[in-house]
Amino acid sequence: MNIKANDPNLKSWVSIPENSDFPIQNLPFGIFSNGNSPRVGVAIGEEILDLKVLFELGFLENTAFEITDFDAAVLNPMLLKGKQATRNLRNRLSDLLNKENIELQNNSEAIAQVLVKAKDVKMHLPLYIGDYTDFYSSEQHAYNVGCLFRDPNNALLPNWKHIPVGYHGRSSSIVVSGEDFHRPKGQKRPNPEEPPVFGTSNLLDFELEMGFVTYQGKPLGDSISTEEADDYIFGMCLFNDWSARDIQGWEYVPLGPFLGKNFASHMGAWIVTLDALEPFRVAGPVQEPKVLPYLEYKGDKHLSIDLEVAIKPEGTTEKVVSNSNYKYMYWNMNQQLAHHSINGCNINCGDMMASGTISGPEEHEYGSMLEISWKGSKSVTMNDGTERKFIKDNDTVIMRGFAKNDKVRIGFGELAAKVLPAK
What we know:
By secondary structure, this protein is an alpha+beta fold. The protein has helices at 51-56, 67-70, 76-79, 83-97, 102-105, 108-114, 139-149, 245-251, 274-277, 333-341, 369-372; strands at residues 29-33, 39-44, 47-50, 115-117, 122-124, 132-135, 166-168, 174-176, 181-182, 185-188, 197-200, 204-205, 208-214, 233-240, 243-244, 265-267, 272-273, 281-282, 302-303, 306-312, 319-325, 352-354, 380-381, 387-388, 396-404, 409-420. The protein contains eleven helices and 26 strands.
């Protein structure tokens, strides 16, 4: 796929630090404010390009957009214009930021209005998320959980290699990076021989995930094929789908997660377009048994994205506890979207689809404390000498991710969230 804005030789006139997450080849979208109303911005180096002002100054003429698409507190109005429109927009922004183009570069008055220092802004939840689906698509994670709670010789449930397993989560409690949350409460049963008790979760856990965001899908009754899926995916973000393991363990049979999951999920502030990630496509695993025809796909539909999780206790430095990669997914986004819609489910603009916990084959690649501590039988020593089996009050969990080849590094920014004591 030849996307002009992906040219690895492009250089920007905007100063971009070495190993920045946001080179000119990225141009992720988010919602920011700087003493004014929230509006659409694009990250470039250590700056944010204000698309509302850019439009007002006439630099986005002859695009499919109107001022209201950028003067908006969410990206949904912009996304309703569709894939080709947002692709053309990203190409136009790439042209304006290209050091070979003097159109904006030589207009110092305009630059002063359209570029804002990222350190000076407040980032907001970038989407109105009407629906949220959480998949369970990492084979190593599913295997680890099966070993911990069932029989290691039969760790995967019979359906796991036939369908991308998923469930409908709670969209109202999805919040943006940097928003603190309180430790959840609920019923738990620490002693299986005694009745349940009510209290705060003692086994709070992160889940290292990636989310993908959709354009408007097809009408109710129609489905999206694996071949069509790329046209309905806008981009990806970091995602931390917190779990209260003790609450979850008591409530999930027979209908699945409820209070153990609905208290908070955090998403990254920046959504990296699927177009920007095209250079990092890789082949997926051989799927055995052979999938049903509607789940078959052609080409490389997996992505190599390096991922990192760190825990930062209050008053000390962070400790990296996981290094994984999105390429370890068994089921890819195209298959997830095809399965989600095969029965006619209508996909809406701004829907969030999360990957499920991403775990690699090695212990240092596990994507949750449940696995890292092996259900509490091991501990991780922090830099201040304290130990962690699960997440404690006032801990901040930080996630980072980037895709890299020998020419370009495309990052997602940082996803951070602090756990406050229960109310």
